[in-house]
Specification:
Elements: H1 2-27, E1 29-40, E2 45-49, H2 54-57, H3 62-71, E3 75-78, H4 81-85, E4 92-98, E5 110-118
Parallel strand pairs: 3-5
Antiparallel strand pairs: 1-2, 1-4, 2-3, 4-5
Keywords: Signal
Region (Disordered): 100-122
Protein name: DUF3221 domain-containing protein
């Protein structure tokens, strides 16, 4: 009987610590919604700017788009090649990134993305 109680306690402690680690990780994830205003194939990066529409980036030069990103807290996100192939400039996306992994000190900043989701607008 003691054997089963010991096994139960070990499983309980292990499960509890695993759940708390997951919760801590989830708390570190930031969510940013915005429009992809530029793609960099060489670096597999997208430049995402919140509070912007696809129409606002039409007929803009790269320099103008970057200036808009700087003004509106946009950021570059490094993403997987699969994700890169599935998004286009002008797409509305939600990007999840880990703030504990930090960001490069540039303007706009460069961050690593955990996940990118396309937002479908009805």
């Amino acid at each position: 009987m003691r054997f089963f109680v010991c096994i139960f306690l070990i499983l309980l402690v292990t499960t509890s610590s695993a759940c708390s680690s997951l919760t801590e990780k989830e708390e570190d994830i930031e969510k940013v919604e915005g429009v992809i205003v530029e793609k960099d194939e060489e670096e597999n990066q997208i430049l995402v700017v919140p509070d912007m529409t696809e129409d606002e980036i039409k007929d803009k030069t790269s320099e103008e788009v970057i200036a808009m990103a700087q003004d509106r807290e946009g950021a570059y996100y490094s993403i997987s090649s699969n994700s890169y192939d599935n998004v286009e400039t002008g797409d509305q996306v939600v990007v999840y990134w880990d703030r504990n992994e930090g960001q490069e000190d540039s303007d706009p900043p460069k961050r690593g993305a955990e996940m990118v989701e396309k937002v479908t607008i009805n």
